[in-house]
Design a protein that fits this description.
Length: 500
Amino acid sequence: MEAEINEPVVRLRGISNEFPGVLAVDEVDLEIMPGEVHVVAGENGAGKSTLMKLLSQVERPSGGEIRISSQPVEFHGPGHAQSLGVAMVYQEFALAPHLSVAENLFLGREPGRAGFVNRRTEKTDARVLLERVGLRVDPARLLSGLTVAEQQRVEIAKALAIDAKVVIMDEPTATLAEREIEGLFEVIRDLTSRGIAILYISHRLDEIFRIADRVTVMRDGKVVDTLPVSDLDEDKLVRLMVGREVANLYPKPEAEIGDVLLRASGINRGDKLKDCSFEVRRGEILGFAGLVGAGRTELARAVFGADRMDSGTVELDGRKLKIKKPQDAIEAGVGYLTEDRKVEGLALQLGVDQNITLASLPTSFGFINLAEERRIARRRRDELNIRTPSIRRRVQVLSGGNQQKVVVARWLETRAKVLFFDEPARGIDVGAKAEMFGLIGGLAKEGHGIVIISSYLPELLNMCDRILVMHEGEVAGVVGREEFSEERIIALATGTKEAA
Ligand SMILES: Nc1ncnc2c1ncn2[C@@H]1O[C@H](COP(=O)(O)OP(=O)(O)OP(=O)(O)O)[C@@H](O)[C@H]1O
Ligand SMILES: [Mg+2]
């Protein structure tokens, strides 16, 4: 019954998958050992998510062999993969928000015989599973009332419920705050100590070095190499991923800082925003730091007209704006790249070209210059290295990171004077991140005012002129570049008392 100690829990041999025009996964060999954290890294579109979908039987391989605990696996769909112990931690989408936590845990496989669901055992079992993933919530609560981090724990508990041998996590920290990431890593360590293998996709180098035992790097659908993390450093990993050196991850521009461009004063909204004020100057990059839920996104949304404010004013170039809805903000010259791009950002059925020019073209009523649209789209595609067989391809079939780049490209293309970028680097690979920050810096240099919201401090510390730190809906402080330090910002963000 017990597996041999050195027997891989998963073995892929020559696994391939082809989509129209793209060989997404190209003859991949991969072995996952019990109890290891195996990171799969690589540029956007390298084939990471597709590989996970092949293992979890969401996609059918066009060739090759999958073995789980030495047994060859037939393709019968995701349910079959689960029954063999392959669990996938989806973010948000897989769970049923209108059902309770307990119901979600046992969805499709309720305990009890002959199809009868025993609510009492369900509840007890749920408690045990939730305990194991460090989640203290009532199993009877509706899933929709939980935070994203809590919902993720439910997904992991679900993996335990099916007795998973390998748990796949595709960019699990993308929507988590720093503290929640710590918590996730604790859960991962607990799982691996029980012999469960974790297959983990991430673009964040710091994270990879903290959590990985081994790293497999993919490029263009192929495995470049699999190495123990101890044989890697950041430079080497980046070189394996992008096939070249990336000298400067955060190209901070030498922009001249001018007059105040945007001034937000006394913004209140329920108990989410309390008397928040800030200003952004021409050529300035202002950071919004703070824990998730501190109000950074809420503040941006209020200024942008995505949420109504109870009181407060917004001025642009000294003129008071009347912003009732996002369209008013856009027309006035304020742009906002949302953090949740999947929902708000993209017209999935439209082409890459149309999506890029969507925000810049509405001024030319009814008349769209197709040649110009394509020219712009091609230029942005090259700059941001958007991987798509054609710029007319539907955005829907691009990889996650490439979809995000399309949204970034769109906002780079607007005529907005002030641009809010909410978690702009989320899901974007390391090479493209440098390009993107370079382009954002370029906008500052052209005299735009930039606000970057990020949970990743190095990003803010490197790119910003000033950092505004939020804590529980209030502006806890604003720190100038000459006074930047991680400790200081964390102290403000966590509400730890310190000299102002
Ligand atoms: N359903 C699909 N139809 C057509 N092409 C697809 C489909 N899904 C993925 N692809 C293509 O397969 C390639 C690999 O995509 P995949 O999502 O596996 O990349 P990834 O490594 O996960 O990238 P990212 O880091 O951006 O998430 C991409 O070129 C993508 O456009
Ligand atoms: Mg992906």
